[in-house]
Specification:
By secondary structure, the chain is α/β, with parallel strands linked by helices. It contains 8 helices and 8 strands.
Length: 215
């Protein structure tokens, strides 16, 4: 078999090396491995992103809370993260006509920061008796000691405890004691007896009249 001269053999070797180099560059540019991409969501302005094809919520964008009780529009609302209890009540249309105003300050911290999934219960005159008379705050009815409130959260003047009477707007310890002493002499027949017996003033009477009953 004839042997190639030295010079052609060198040229052939160089040509083979050049071909291998080109193939390596093509493979490097094309790449065989995959990569993770982060693209904006299809919905303009949405706080959701596609990471490796999966939707992921943008952290801290909003929270969802339920608002119930004495508000104009009870329901579930979306609020900005960091919202307060007062913001949730405002979103629900503010306090409703059945709000138990005397219990709001005692049972709600309007400045408290809300968390996702939280429920805000605004005191209402339609609450069950155990809650309306202080059950939510560990009051008399929470211990099961009296049961003096009537249906719909109304306080029975003939059976209410001292603490329950003091929970009414404008009724302090002295007035509550007078009401108890008066009913011991003669049970109340109507709510108007409070005024006829001069136990409360007209302004106070108008405030508590929707909150009390006589059983």
């Amino acid at each position: 078999m004839p042997h190639l001269p030295a010079e052609p053999r060198v040229i052939a070797a160089l040509a083979g090396a050049a071909i291998l180099a080109v193939v390596a560059v093509v493979l490097a540019i094309g790449g065989v491995g995959g990569s993770v991409t982060v693209d904006a969501a299809a919905e303009p302005g949405a706080d959701t992103y596609l990471v490796a094809g999966l939707p992921v919520s943008s952290p801290g964008s909003e929270i969802v809370v339920a608002v119930a009780g004495g508000v104009a529009r009870p329901g579930v609302y979306r609020l900005a993260d960091g919202s307060r209890v007062a913001d949730a009540i405002a979103a629900a249309g503010g306090f409703g006509p059945r709000v138990a105003a005397a219990r709001v300050d005692a049972e709600l911290n309007l400045a408290a920061v809300l968390h996702d999934g939280e429920r805000v219960s605004v005191p209402s005159r339609d609450d069950p008796a155990s809650v309306a008379a202080g059950g939510a705050q560990g009051g008399p009815l929470a211990s099961g000691s009296s049961g003096s409130s009537a249906g719909g959260g109304l306080i029975d003047l003939n059976r209410a405890t001292q603490a329950e009477l003091e929970s009414l707007p404008g009724i302090g310890p002295a007035t509550a004691s007078k009401i108890i002493a008066s009913r011991e002499e003669s049970p109340f027949r109507t709510v108007d007896d409070l005024r006829q017996r001069k136990l409360v003033g007209e302004k106070t009477f108008q405030k508590i009249k929707p909150l009390v009953t006589v059983g």
